[in-house]
């Protein structure tokens, strides 16, 4: 009987969620982004891409259409999940408006 060569771990793109480094925590992607793709939201929810699109079709997933893209707003997704709201990033104050 021939021995099988040792298998190498698969590092193909198919095993990694799109747009997220392998070592990043799953919810960390929501920290710097206002929206996610349906595929990224599916990964966070632990469901497949098709199930996520079907949930959108049933109105079960908070999505917004922008041109041809279907996006999941991060605040709406976190609210839908019952997660605590994110703190707003530190932004400079708006410029003062002149009064006449």
Structure explained in plain terms:
The protein has 100 residues and is an alpha+beta fold. It has a domain at 30-81: Arc Repressor Mutant, subunit A (Orthogonal Bundle), CATH 1.10.10. The chain contains three helices and three strands, in the order E-H-H-E-E-H. Strands 1-3-2 form a three-stranded antiparallel β-sheet. Helix 1 (38-45) packs across helix 2 (49-57). The longest helix has 9 residues, at 49-57.
Features:
alpha+beta, three-stranded antiparallel beta sheet
Précis, in short:
This protein is 25% helix and 11% strand.
Q: How does the SSE layout of this entry go?
A:
Elements: E1 35-37, H1 38-45, H2 49-57, E2 64-66, E3 69-73, H3 74-81
Antiparallel strand pairs: 1-3, 2-3
- Would you count the extended β strands for me? 3
Count of helix runs: 3
> Can you give the helix content as a percent range?
25-40%
Question: What is the chain-wise order of helices and strands?
Answer: EHHEEH
Mean pLDDT: 77
- The geometry reads as elongated
Give me the CATH architecture of the domain at 30-81, please: Orthogonal Bundle
Q: Trace the largest sheet across and list its strands.
A: 1-3-2
CATH class (first level) name of the domain at 30-81 = Mainly Alpha
Structural class: alpha+beta
